[in-house]
């Protein structure tokens, strides 16, 4: 997990401004004795959003 990113339930919380270094494929894997599941999210950071300082930016997947 990149520095400054935390998992809360099914959400990634970016607790810092996003940068192009955050671009990539994020993978959520779960498994139990009955099955395993994997979901991939391809994230691309192309520029800076002005006017937002700090805070968290949730990344949702279904």
From TrEMBL:
PROSITE patterns, A to Z: IG_LIKE (PS50835)
InterPro entries xref list: Ig-like_dom, Ig-like_dom_sf, Ig-like_fold
Stored Gene3D superfamilies: Immunoglobulins
Stretches assigned to the Ig-like domain: 1-44
GO MF, any single term: transferase activity
Domain of life: Eukaryota
CDD domains (alphabetical): Ig
Keywords in alphabetical order: Transferase
Protein name: UDP-glucuronosyltransferase 1-9-like
Organism from which the protein derives: Platysternon megacephalum
């Amino acid at each position: 997990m990149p520095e400054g990113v935390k998992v809360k339930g099914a959400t990634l919380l970016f607790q810092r401004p996003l940068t192009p270094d955050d671009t990539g494929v994020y993978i959520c894997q779960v498994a139990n004795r009955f099955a395993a599941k994997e979901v991939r999210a391809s994230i691309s950071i192309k520029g800076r959003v002005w006017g937002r300082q700090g805070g968290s930016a949730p990344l949702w997947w279904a």
